[in-house]
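User: Predict the complex.
Assistant: Input components as received:
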Amino acid sequence: MNKLVLIIQREYFSRVKKKSFIIMTILGPLLMAGVLIVPVWLAMRDKTDHQILVLDHSGLFIEKLTNTTEIKFTYGSESIASAKLKLKDGPFDLIMEIKGDALNDEKTTPVLYYKKQPGISTEQYITNQMENILFDYRLQGDSIDIKKIDNARRQVQLLTLKVTEDGKDEKTNTELNMGIGFGCAFAIYFMIFLYGSQVMRGVIEEKSNRIVEVIISSVKPFQLMLGKILGVALVGLTQFILWIILTLVLQTAITTFLFKDELADKVKQNSQIEKVMKNDLTAGITKMEKVETPNEAIALFNDLDKVNFSQIIVCFAFFFLFGYLLYAALFAAIGSAVDNEADTQQFILPVTIPLILSFIIAQSIIKDPDSSMAQFFSIFPLTSPIVMMVRLPFGVPMWELLLSMVMLIIGFLFFTWLAGKIYRTGILMYGKKTTWKELGKWLFYKG
Amino acid sequence: MNSILEVKNINKHYGNYQALKNVSLEIPEKAIFGLLGPNGAGKTSLIRIINQITGPDSGEVIFCGEKLAPKHVDYIGYLPEERGLYKKMSVGEQVMYLAQLKGLKKNIAKEKLIHWFKKFEIESWWDKKVEELSKGMQQKVQFIVTVLHEPKLLILDEPFSGFDPINAQLIKNEILELREKGSTIIFSTHNMGSVEELCDNIALIHKSEKILDGTVSDIRKAHRSNTFHVIFKGNLIGFTNALWAGAEILEKKSVGDVHTLTIKLLRQTTPNALLEAVLQNAEIISFHEIVPSMNDIFISVVENKPALNTQSYFTE
């Protein structure tokens, strides 16, 4: 036992002290923060102001296009040639010319002139506006009462309620559940690969350094394998915790010091724009009934409260740990069977197939979290760490969860035992390219 | 004589391949025991069983009168043929780690390591990374780690590979010193010169079986083939006539009237009869029996041929 601790210590400290670990630990949160911040930053940058000069020869759109904070419409009547001159030095960066009978002639196409191409969203905003206006005109032309149409339409929002064990209703948020499930599943998937392959490389290193026989004259091969797997698990845990801490610190720092004012402004503006856009888009079709537009952020927080976080955190820790342990044992076995990393491909593929399969299955499980397929794969040990995490936020019966956990532990013990048998023989084999057949034979060698 | 290690009727299979066939050995205490055999004979399999890296299919190993058990690994030191160190680790950390794996307490390990590093004059290496050391330097570090815990039984597989002659001598002296202090050494090598120089006993394994064992001197005596080396001055024809049917000349070389011959005595011919024949015709310069070297014995036993191949030496 004491020797196992020594091995774990070495595996842990030799990795934690490495430059690459320190760099990855610092770079990880920067990347994560980048992923979170860059879109916001880009969104802020992307919204450039547009001054649009509208030359409307049909007269249908004059004073009808709605301005936003970014897009301002001005209406003119000069010729396009003289307007284009204004584009060069004038205040307008876009000119839109509408010719002929836009209401009846389908071939009439408005033309947008630019010096610098506007973004897709600007173009879309303009076409949406024009379509809505034309829609209204046409209905009026056919003497149809717009109000009647509005009244005929009714928006339906589905409220999903979960009935809990004690018979109470509970509001759930499907998108949120999906997000949490996929997030956890992806984290587990990523970490199994990241740290599993570290175990594999460690085994290959020991083998190619030829130190392995020196060590296993002092400890059992199984102890060495287990020590490595547990040591790397601790490295993973350390790195994960540091990442979370650093990410939080970084995010708080950035939001408080850099974007404080801008961010607050933007949030306000964005919600305004959305409201305006929504109103505009639906204006022609439906009269926006006094539908409550609840503050979405607050609603999200309310929904977050409904998610059983303590269960998800416990299950995440469990499925991550045992999922990693199971796969790390397989990766260790692969490492022992080869002489260098280049030879690992043929063995890695079959090991990764269940992991990748889990992710493909997850797509359909999201649609039907209680199907028999979902049940099977969330209990089968090789796929359960990922599939169960996807199902979990939708609510899983306790007996299924417990069965899945027990199966994973059994799977872990079985695969570690199996891997131990391969490992024990593999680490002492040099120079031969191992085949699957041989790997099978090793299982039956006596200790 | 007490034996520290007894190997009894060991069998070991790898799949259909039988690596060891009913091998029995007895290794006396404080001996330097040569474990010989061609490549793939089963030496390493046997060594791994003694080190409990693998277990035998049948048979048993007795260490110091007890059945071999996991606790015994701390009394055995093993320098494998395929050996190395963690390249990225510093020498100091590495030797401390390996010493502690052998069951030494941290402070004792440190004390002993400092002693050895001083002895080998390599204190300056402590903080270096292993990859900065030359192959020979790494071997020295490895040797220290193997013997550090003063094992009762030391198993050295090709210990001199990678050493220059000076360091090889240094290691030889250390091995002899360890024996003086009470260690028993199993020494596996293909270098027959060092076997003759160091070993008291040997066992020869060939095709998974032990085919020869005993003390080096007994084995060499047993493989004598009644062959003598004679240098004399005088008449060669008279000499050969005098020998007539009693002996066979395996090799001869003449410079002027000084003749050097290798003679195998036939049937009941004694060395004295040979000398008598020579004395009538010549003046003896040198006369001695050819005792086969371990190298010759190794080759002859493995190839199942007599120790001196008469055919190839016959020049008439």
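Chain B is about 35% helix and 30% strand.
Let me know if you want any component modeled separately.
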